[in-house]
Structure formats: C-alpha cells, structure tokens
Amino acid sequence: MHPVSDPAHDDYVLPFAIDALDTRGRLARLGPSIDAILTRHAYPAPVARLLGEAAALTSVLATALKIEGRFQLQTRSDGPVDMIVVDFDFPDRLRAFARYDAKRLAEGRFIEGLRPDLLGSGHLALTVEQGEEHTRYQGIVVLEGQGLEAAAHEYFRQSEQIPTFVRLAVAQAITPSGAQWRAGALLVQFLPDSPERRRIVDMDPGDAPDGVFVPESDEDNAWTEARLLAATVEDHELVDPTLSSERLLFRLFHERGVKVFEAAGVLDRCRCSDGRVRAMLEGFSASDRKDMIGDDGKIGVTCEFCSTKRVYEPSEFGPAD
After folding, report:
1. Contact 111, 44 (CB under 8 A)
2. CA 289 to CA 218: how far, in whole Å?
3. 3-class state of residue 150 by DSSP
4. Residues 81, 57: contact at Cβ < 8 Å?
5. Which residue, 124, 199, 104, 128, is CA-closest to 157?
6. For 215-226, how does the pLDDT look when each residue is reduced to its tens digit (9 = 90+)?
7. What is the C-alpha to C-alpha distance for residues 129 and 207, in angstroms, rounded to an integer?
C-alpha cells in the first residue's frame, strides 16, 4: 500500500483500486518532466498540448505492464501534426517528440485550443518490445479525426475488450519561476473476476440482413457507477500542482472506498548517447558519411527527442571513398 500524501507530487503514476466496483486504474501527474520535454522544442501551444496528452497516456499504459524493455506510442497521419513518438524505457524513462507543419498549423487557426483534427487521418500504434527472446506486440487504432482520448477508448474496445475510461489533460501552470507545462491522465478499467461480466457488449455490425435480431446487453451496474464517478474529474484537477493524486482519487471515489498502491516514477531521460550515435554513423558507408559533412567540415547529429547536438570529425570513422 502507498501512504496517503497531502502534498502534491509530480512525475509519477499512482495505481489504485475500487474493490466494491471491481475497478482498477492509474493516475499520472507529470510536471518538470513534461515541461522539459515540451519547452526544449518550443512547440506551439496546440502541438505541446497534444504531445503532452500522448506522454501522459503513455505513462499510464506503460507503467501497468511491469516488464523489461520499451513501450512506444506512435501516430502517423495526414494532419498538421503528422507524427508523434513517445518512448517509455522501463522502469521510468520517458522521451517524446512531435513533427508538425507550421504553415498548416497557422492556416488551420488551431492556436485557441487543442482540436482533435490536429492528427487528421492515419493510425495510432502501441508497441511493446521486450528483447529478442520475446515476441514484439503491436496494437493499431485507425485515426479518423478523433483525439487521443477517443483513440485510446477505441483501442481498449477493439484490442483488449476491457471496459475502459480515459481522461487526458494538459495545461500551463503559473509558478514563481514562470509558466510551466503540466499533464495528467486518468485510466479506469472494469476488471471483475468473471469474464462474462468483463466482456464488452458487441456493437451492431451494421451489415446484418434485414430481419436478423441483434441482441443487446446492459452495461454492468458496477462499471456504470465507476465510469460515471470517473467522468466527474475536471481537467484542472488533473493538472493542479497543489492537489495530490491521493486527494484527487478520494474526491472521485470516496463513496465506494479507494485504495492506492506503490507509485511508479517518471523521468525525462533520452536514450541517445555518444556511443549510440557513433555506432549509427559507423553503420553508414563512407560515401553516405561524406554526404553528411557540413559547411564546417564536420558531421553534426541532433537527437530529435532531446535536441542534443553532437559533432564529429569525419576522419574518426576512417578515410572517405
């Protein structure tokens, strides 16, 4: 069990359970980690909010797996933000970046707030890699203009068949040192012992012949209650730096009783290193490396995630062709 905290803590994911409703969940609150990720690239506000949502969603999904390896969330689409990549290296390392078209973003007038169609049409991929001894897992969700919350709901409905509620929030908080980005995610799932109670009702296929009866089943009362309680959470509560995760969960579920467990930390850490970059450059042919040489006569490599730039002498990798 995790001791209840009055002070708010940032950059960790808190697991919880509501036994009376056969419900479990995770609550992520990201502060300095997400602020560093978003500010180092100086993303426009709509892009920063979208990437913050992706990072918070990744945090609640990845920390639930308890494995060795890497969890990755990636979007590829035709929207103004055509690619998002969020990596979570177990047990606690988070990194993320977004690629966007500044001209399309300005033309779309997205600055007033986040709109789902920043992503456009494409796909969302969730990938789990546990090393060569394990099979790589990947789940795919089609993006059709919906936001990440809706895409997450669709993933659990299609791939996991677990009744799930997701709420994501990102905002800038005013602190003595200036505005800082914050992100939060609430994931709630119905996990009773009985598979029959847990099964999601199949949707009408839409192509059944005329006259064919498609049976309907009622949603489990326990899940209905848990989902409605979770839906009362406000965006500002998920990003409030003065409200602890434990107190927020008590606000939401105290009528049914909620217990929390040991939290998992989240750190802003990139996996790039001098050794990795050198190994990558050595993998290129001498001719390819020659094409990488800049006007200063050196090879410069900038990490898309952490923006660290490393500069090398071409001669370090052998003679040119």
Report:
1. yes
2. 63
3. helix
4. no
5. 199
6. 455 688 999 999
7. 37
Check pLDDT > 60 for residue 94: yes
Q: In DSSP terms, which residues pair with 137 in a beta bridge?
A: 128
In a domain, 141, yes or no: yes
Q: How far is CA 179 from CA 32, 125, 171, 229, in A?
A: 11, 32, 10, 31
Q: Which of 123-137, 160-174, 227-241 has the lowest mean pLDDT?
A: 123-137
Determine phi and psi for 99, rounding to 5 degrees.
-115, 130
Phi, psi values for residue 105, rounded to 5°: -65, -45
Burial 50-77 (b: 16+ CB within 10 A, else e): bbbbbbbbbbbbbbbeeeeebbbbbbeb
Same domain, 51 and 94: yes
Query: At what angle are helices 221-230 and 245-253 packed, to 10 degrees?
Result: 130
Residue 207 lies in a domain: no
Residue 55 shares a structural domain with residue 120: yes
